[in-house]
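To the team - zinc ion complex, inputs and output below.
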Amino acid sequence: MITAHLPAGYVTGRAFARSGPVLWAAMLGGVLPDLDLIWFYLIDGRAFHHHHYWVHIPAFWVASAFIVLPLATWRGTQWVRPALAFFAAILVHLLLDTVAGGIKWLWPVRDRFFHLVTVPAAHAHWILNFILHPVFLAELAIWAAALLILLRRSPA
Ligand SMILES: [Zn+2]
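Output:
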């Protein structure tokens, strides 16, 4: 997934709330794993696929949820829905990255990427390979769904 994580976070967040901190938490969760691209480009010099970083490892988020969700519950019920929306959006992010990118769903048991579609390297630049592949239609559909939900939102 290249462009649709933010709108996917929005769609996920709208399943929890119409606006406010719950929606913002979901949008943050929708994009947060890809902040590893900063490290990927600036520190590691693109040495290996950024899905190797811990923010793209489901086991890390499961462990985080086991810590954060009880804390959120203890802190007060107003923290539970934003935390749930955040982790739901993280899950959606990882599922979308599984379509063509690959996620290590079984780490630490197996150190292997799982993906649904292999995008062939048919063009000189990797972005063209994804944009000109039918899998990019899924990104456009997510954008369309998010825009539809946004435009149908009644004024507060
Ligand atoms: Zn990602």
